[in-house]
Amino acid sequence: MIRQDIFVPEALLKPIEKKIIKELDKIGLFYRIFSRIKTNESIEKKLSHKKYNENKKMQDIIGVRIVLYFNDDIEICEKLISRIYKKVGESIDKPDSSTFKPTRTNIVYQLDAMTIDEISPAIQGKFIDTTFELQLRTVFSEGWHEVEHDLRYKCEDEWSTYDEHSRTLNGLVATLETCDWSIMTLFSDLSYRNYRDSNIIPMMRNKFRLRFENTPLDMNIRNILLENNKKLLKKLFRIDRNDLLENLSKIKIPVSLKFNNIIYICNHYYLKSEKIETITPKAITRLL
Minimal CA–CA distance to 136: which of 80, 96, 193, 211? Predict the structure, then answer.
């Protein structure tokens, strides 16, 4: 029997990446994005090893992986991408208090109509869905997932009689997971120290952890924030990061991530200072 190759052009990855990048860059997350289309060998192997049918089809012929620098950005990233693609399934591990193991955040999304038109002829007659799989990882867990997936998950029998080695490998996961949370704690503490010392730009940089443009802070804004025993600065420091990112993501036209602009936006949603409002550029006001 002659194998019929499945040809899905790699050019289809670019529009998917472009849509995702647009959303993530809009709010300034730190991340890296990778994508791939399964090879024919990988497709045939998976089709032969797993029981696929009309009701259960392969969903990851196209795969996208986003590696985030901060653990709390995984939830934010998922929410953003779920606005531009329809979620049809997920496999998200919930960590428990007594076990350390790789925690997956794998989500299946429906491809857009244009990509479906391109891919449909190639997968016709195969138990392959018109979806793609998104994997969300942190920098610390990324390498571990690769190693665990290829060297343990795919060959569990080889590990079955070596429990002590599995335990050691799981211990490494615990260390990496601790690093993820320790990094966030470090920046949170640094933000507080800068708030206490009235270092506004370092406070914002470490509080919000975004790809800020390296621009100076308007002295008028600085003076207003430090008035009345730093009353407004305290409100700025107490803003919930996730809530701010949610509001940033809803602005239709991306705003350059300058410190001044973020304070104008924070003032609109949280600070409510008339003095800052009077110096807010009309270009910013019209977007809010």
Answer: 80
